Amino acid sequence: MLGHYLSRSRSRFARLALLALLAGLMILPQVEESAAMDGAGRWRTFWQVVLPLLRPATASVLIFLGVWIWNDFLNPLIILGPASGTTVTVGVYRAIGEHQQDYGQVFGLMFLAALPVLIFYVALEKHFVKGLTGGAVKG
C-alpha cells in the first residue's frame, strides 16, 4: 500500500512538472532553428539557448513542487502514525491539540513552518516573475 501511494504521489508531482516544462518548451522551435542557422550545434544550442530559456519554467516547478511537498499533511499523518516521528505540518497540528489555549506557541510554530517556504521563494523569485511576465510581452 505504501509503495502504491509513493508511486502515485510521484506521478502526480511529475505530471505538474512535465506540464510546466512542456509549456516552456513550446516557444523553442523557432529559437532552435535560429541557433542552427547561426551555426550552433546541438549541445551548444541546448546549453546556451534552451537551458537559459527554461530557467523560469524550472523555477516555477521547483517553487510549486517544493511548497506542495513541504505542506503535505494528511499522508505523513497517516503513514508515520503517532510514534514514528513527524513532519512540520503534522507537528503544528499536534501542537494545537484538542483544547489548545497557547496561541503564541502555535503562531510561532506556524511562522517557523512558513519560513523555509518564504526563503525558497525569495531565492527563486527573480526567475519565477520573469516566467510569469515573459509570456505577456510579445516581441
How would you describe what is shown here?
With 139 residues, the protein is an all-alpha fold. It has a single domain (2-134), classed as MetI-like fold. Helices cover 79% and strands 0% of the residues. The longest helix is centred in the last third of the chain and has 32 residues, at 103-134. The radius of gyration is 21 Å and the shape is elongated.
Can you summarize the main beta sheet?
none
> Strand fraction band?
under 5%
- The radius of gyration is 21 Å
Low-confidence stretches: 135-139
Describe what is shown at a glance:
The chain has 139 residues and is mostly helical.
Topology:
Layout: H1 2-25, H2 28-37, H3 42-53, H4 55-70, H5 74-80, H6 88-96, H7 103-134
Relevant terms:
MetI-like fold; 139 residues; disordered C terminus
